[in-house]
Design a protein that fits this description.
Elements: H1 2-30, H2 39-50, H3 56-66, H4 71-91, H5 99-109, H6 115-124, H7 133-137, H8 140-143, H9 147-155
């Protein structure tokens, strides 16, 4: 009986620690940056500015690309990635989000450790990743803060 109580206590503490970790991450995303807006504020801005630019094919591609993400985190991942795709689209001054923009934004928004899943998914869809290799080479820490400057430099 005592062992069961100890195991229950360990499970409860572990689950609380995991929940606290994700709550703390969300808290950090809500903190304002130098410009006075938080990461979440910018995500909402890009989503709002580009929601009319999404076609059904591009929405479907995004759904397929985020399918390897565990269902519990899929909505949050999709929102974050879609906002980055919107940011890329606005940076390129596009009127419509294209397949290329979806792939570029997805690579930029995704940690390097998840790129193998993306490569696999693109291969399944018979999409050549060669034009995007320069984006795969960048680590997330290298482009998350200053991705626009590096993206422009790589595109020239």
């Amino acid at each position: 009986m005592g062992a069961l109580l100890v195991l229950w206590g360990i499970l409860l503490i572990s689950l609380m620690a995991i929940g606290g970790f994700f709550m703390f991450r969300k808290f950090l995303k809500k903190l304002p940056k130098e410009d006075g807006k938080s990461m979440m504020d910018w995500e909402e801005y890009y989503m709002e500015k580009t929601k009319h630019m999404w076609g059904d094919n591009e929405k479907g591609l995004l759904e397929e690309l985020v399918s390897p993400v565990p269902e519990l985190f899929r909505d949050v991942a999709k929102h974050t990635i879609a906002s980055k795709i919107g940011e890329v689209s606005l940076e390129k001054k596009q009127r419509k989000i294209t397949q290329e923009t979806v792939i570029e934004g997805y690579i930029i928004a995704t940690p390097k450790r998840d790129h193998k899943f993306l490569r696999k998914k693109l291969k399944e869809k018979k999409i050549d990743v060669t034009p995007y290799e320069h984006l795969f080479e960048l680590s997330q820490s290298s482009y998350r803060d200053n991705w626009q400057a590096r993206y422009k430099k790589d595109m020239q």
